[in-house]
């Protein structure tokens, strides 16, 4: 794990905690191009009343607007939870160069756990995937959120 990856994941964790304070599933994501963060987001499915408002999709959309292109070929995307099939598909379609995630998602993860869409040679693009960066920290944020939910 590089110090740069860890530092960027800490920024994602801060976004996840912000989502938690808004009663959203605590997932945070950033998009980095040329060493600079060009977009960031956390889950907003409750606020937007949309199952599509995942942190990764929101961050990708913001990054595309920022750079003025639908492709993010030089982008690195950091996210606190392994992307689901919808988000992994969006990462592939955006032609992201590198995905870095924290906690694995054995129930819905599509970047190595249930599926591996990011490195499927049948698709038009493959993404370099790095996992388990600050996974314990991200897992603790998620566990705390769902424990509070279950006890409510």
Describe what you observe in this structure.
By secondary structure, the protein is α/β, with parallel strands linked by helices. The chain contains 4 helices and 5 strands. A 5-stranded mixed β-sheet has the order 2-1-3-4-5. Strand 1 and strand 2 form a beta hairpin. Helix 1 packs parallel to helix 4. The longest helix is centred in the N-terminal third of the chain and has 19 residues. The protein starts with a helix and ends with a helix. The mean pLDDT is 97.
Silhouette: globular
Order the strands across the largest sheet as they lie in space: 2-1-3-4-5
Portion in beta strands? 15-25%
Mean pLDDT: 97
SSE arrangement:
Blueprint: H1 3-21, E1 28-33, E2 36-42, H2 55-67, E3 75-81, H3 85-93, E4 98-103, E5 128-130, H4 135-151
Parallel strand pairs: 3-4, 4-5
Antiparallel strand pairs: 1-2, 1-3
List keywords for this structure.
alpha/beta, five-stranded mixed beta sheet, 4 helices, 38% helix, globular
Concise overview:
It is built from four helices and five strands.
């Amino acid at each position: 794990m590089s110090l740069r990856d860890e530092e960027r994941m800490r920024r994602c964790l801060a976004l996840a905690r912000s989502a938690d304070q808004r009663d959203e599933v605590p997932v945070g994501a950033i998009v980095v191009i040329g060493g600079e963060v060009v977009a960031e987001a956390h889950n907003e499915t409750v606020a937007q009343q949309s199952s599509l408002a995942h942190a990764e999709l929101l961050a990708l959309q913001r990054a595309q607007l920022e750079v003025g292109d639908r492709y993010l070929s030089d982008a690195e995307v950091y996210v606190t939870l392994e992307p689901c099939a919808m988000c992994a598909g969006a990462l592939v379609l955006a032609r992201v160069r590198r995905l870095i995630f924290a906690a694995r998602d054995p129930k819905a993860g599509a970047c190595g756990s249930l599926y591996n869409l990011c490195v499927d040679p049948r698709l038009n693009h493959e993404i370099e995937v790095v996992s388990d960066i600050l996974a314990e920290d991200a897992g603790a944020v998620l566990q705390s959120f769902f424990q509070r939910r279950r006890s409510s």
